[in-house]
Each structure stands twice: as structure tokens, then as C-alpha cells.
Write a structure and sequence with these properties.
369 residues, alpha/beta, 21 strands, 21% helix, 8 helices
């Protein structure tokens, strides 16, 4: 593995800033967090400041058994340590990507990543008091936020409540304990569903409920809440807060899997059938792909990604619902109607970029691909 010249990282002339796009990064370190969770730290040979909003994510571009797969993972590190970034991955039974990462991704390996993107972050929702709620590996985005506040000595009153199956499944436990002893504005509460034989546990037991929350954060209705975890966990939290009369304008959650992806394959099949009709419906528009020189006339409402598939163009995609940002393309003429879920920034939209998986054709457009 090529060694790093630390002097380069102290030279502002040589240092660049991370921007959303595709980057080839090197795995610097692998840390075993729990029995089935590992943290992977990445950086670049060329000095780069990895600035992002705590809570955002990247999408990994992987080739597994000859098939290209894209998966999004929250950045678990904080931009306050800017020359590298980390993701934390849990091995999941039957999980193709997570298991491949655990079995194959090693220190020194190169891997393409896309990002950073995401609307779930603590920068866009400033508050004097916050409540972090997490379950399992859902701790990663809120840990990034807590690390950011901790490292920057932010005057933010933090309550951190994390739920795990057993004490041995608590991710970042030593660091969380350290943070709770170093500053007064970080209150840590760990909840374990059960304990294993021989384990000593004096913390909260069971599942987070209204009475437990009242003990953990009596003023939870006055706090900005950031929540992430398995779907059942977040559903239970939402129900708990609803019953308590919480104002959901102050509630934010990681949206991975929150909305079922559209059936892209079925849509493409429909579009292919429409393309075989000699006379296209009058309510249709032309999509021109400039770099390839291909054009097609499609019905109004067709997604740009579907139009590209019809003419044989492959635009990389992962989530299919405007979260990961992988399918970003630039529209140079005309415009479409985009309904994304945080996979693109306002700055990129102003520059003409759209996410092809969730941008429908409403007039003639030209795309730079």
C-alpha cells in the first residue's frame, strides 16, 4: 500500500475539498465494533478535506460476482476530523452487499463512492436542545452528529438514547461513555432489550416506551429529535411521539427504506412497449442524450431513467427513489419535474443537475450523457 505524506495534508495549496460525485477512495483502517459490526475508514492519496453535513451518506459502487451493485451507507465519522471519513456496516444474514464488505473489503483496497448527499442532518435544523434516538446500526448518523457537536465544543444540550439487543451489541460504547464523562451537555442513556448469560447490565431494559422516555428526557417535547433505526423501531417512536402530542415539525428521521421504490423494471417494460407504437400520443416530448447522440419521443411523465433505458443507455442507479444521488445527470435544455428524497443539493439543482430516477419529462429536454 502506498504510504501517505503527512506534509501534503498540511499544505493548503495541495488540499482540495470533497464535492458530490464519484471518487475512488482507499480503505485505511478496519475496526471491529461488535461481533457483527465493522467500521471502514477511507481517504484519498491526494489530500482532500471531507466536508459534509453530519448525518449525510455515501453510495458505494461494488462489483459482486460480475454484477454492479450500489448501496448507500451513512457516514459515521464527523467532518470535524476532515481528512478521512468512515462508514459502519453490520453483517446481515443473507445480505449480499454487507456480507461481501465484511468478507472482502480490506485495508489498502480501492473502492468507488458517490456522494455525499442527504437531507437528514443536524446542520439544516439548528437547535439549542436535541434528542438523538437510535436503534441498532441506526446509531451511525446520530453518532456523526454527536461527534460533530462534541469535537466543535458546540453549546448544544444533547440527550443520546440508544437501543441495542444486548450490551455486547452496543456500537461505539467506549466512545459514548468517554463523551458522557468529558462534557456536561451530553447525557447518555443506553437501553438493552435483553442481556446474555453472564452479562452484568444496570441500564434500561426492554423497549423504549413513554415512561422510559419521560425519565430519559422529561423535556423531549422541547427538543429537536433526530431518529434512525430499523423500520419497526422508527414506527414505534413515531407512534409514541404521536400519542404524546409531539410537534413533528421538530422530528427528523433517516429516510432509507421509508418509501417503497418504484418498479423501474415494469416501467421500462411499459416504455419499451410504447416505443414500438409507430404513432406516439400527442402528449409526448423528445428526450435527447447529447453525448451519445440518441433521441426518443416519450409520453409526458416518463422518467428520464426510463427514456435512457429505451435507447440502450445505462445510467447508474441504486435506490430508485431519489435518495442516493447515483443517477445524477445534467439537463442542458428544457426541464423536467423532479420529486427527490434528498439525493441532490440545492446548488446542484441550480446548476441544472437532476436525478434521472425521479425526474419526469414535461417538455422537450436535452441531457448531457
Amino acid at each position: 500500500m502506498t504510504s501517505f505524506n503527512s506534509s501534503d495534508y498540511l499544505n493548503p495549496v495541495n488540499t482540495q475539498t470533497w464535492t458530490n460525485g464519484r471518487h475512488l477512495v482507499r480503505c485505511l483502517k478496519v475496526t471491529q465494533e461488535t461481533r457483527d459490526v465493522r467500521t471502514y475508514c477511507f481517504s484519498l492519496q491526494q489530500p482532500v478535506l471531507f466536508f459534509f453535513k453530519p448525518g449525510q451518506f455515501v453510495t458505494l459502487e461494488l462489483e459482486i460476482e460480475g454484477e454492479q451493485l450500489m448501496r448507500s451507507y451513512t457516514i459515521s465519522s464527523a467532518p470535524s476530523i476532515p481528512y478521512s471519513f468512515s462508514i459502519t456496516v453490520k453483517r446481515v444474514p443473507g445480505g449480499i452487499v454487507s456480507n461481501w464488505i465484511h468478507d472482502n473489503l480490506n485495508e489498502g483496497d480501492l473502492i468507488p463512492v458517490h456522494g455525499p448527499v442527504g437531507q437528514f442532518n443536524c446542520i439544516d435544523y439548528p437547535a439549542e436542545k436535541v434528542l438523538f434516538l437510535s436503534g441498532g446500526v441506526g446509531i451511525t448518523p446520530v453518532m456523526s452528529m454527536a461527534r460533530w457537536f462534541f469535537n466543535t465544543n458546540a453549546e448544544v444540550d444533547m440527550v443520546f438514547a440508544h437501543s441495542a439487543r444486548t450490551p455486547s451489541d452496543i456500537i461505539y460504547r467506549a466512545e459514548l461513555d468517554y463523551m458522557s464523562t468529558r462534557i456536561e451537555n451530553f447525557k447518555l442513556h443506553l437501553i438493552c432489550e435483553q442481556s446474555e448469560t453472564g452479562q452484568v447490565w444496570s441500564g434500561y431494559r426492554g423497549l423504549l416506551n413513554r415512561d422510559m422516555l419521560q425519565l430519559i428526557a422529561p423535556d423531549f417535547k422541547e427538543r429537536e429529535i433526530f431518529c434512525c433505526g430499523p423500520t419497526p423501531y422508527m414506527a414505534a417512536i413515531q407512534q409514541l411521539l404521536t400519542d404524546a402530542g409531539f410537534d413533528f415539525t421538530h422530528y427528523h428521521e433517516e429516510s432509507f427504506g421509508a418509501t417503497p421504490p418504484s418498479d423501474i423494471a415494469a416501467a421500462e417494460e411499459q416504455a419499451e412497449g410504447a416505443a414500438e407504437v409507430e404513432e406516439v400520443d400527442i402528449d409526448s416530448h423528445w428526450v435527447t442524450f447529447q453525448e451519445s447522440g440518441k433521441s426518443i419521443q416519450v409520453p409526458k411523465g416518463t422518467m428520464l431513467h426510463e427514456a435512457a433505458a429505451i435507447v440502450g443507455l445505462t445510467i447508474p442507479k441504486a435506490c430508485g427513489m431519489g435518495i442516493c444521488g447515483t443517477c445524477r445527470v445534467k439537463v442542458t435544455s428544457g426541464q423536467g419535474e423532479m420529486n427527490h428524497n434528498g439525493g441532490i443539493s440545492d446548488e446542484e439543482i441550480e446548476e441544472g443537475y437532476v436525478l434521472s430516477c425521479c425526474t419526469s419529462v414535461t417538455e422537450n429536454v436535452e441531457v448531457d450523457c
